[in-house]
Amino acid sequence: MMLQMIPATSSLISLYILVKLGGTLGIPAVGMLILIYSGGAIAGNTFMLKSYLDTVSPELDDSGKIDGCTNW
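RESULT FIELD:
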């Protein structure tokens, strides 16, 4: 992914701007950091989960359908 080519320290400027913006909106800095980090973690974990689920073999899906499993 292209995001891994940019160092993590380069995001400090945008992080500082977002925390400063949260302060003007009345959100404390800790609360703003929680929002920012949880949003980033959800996106990152979603990509990791998708890449893992792509490795599941079609044979397992087919055997589950034979046993009566649905898509959900």
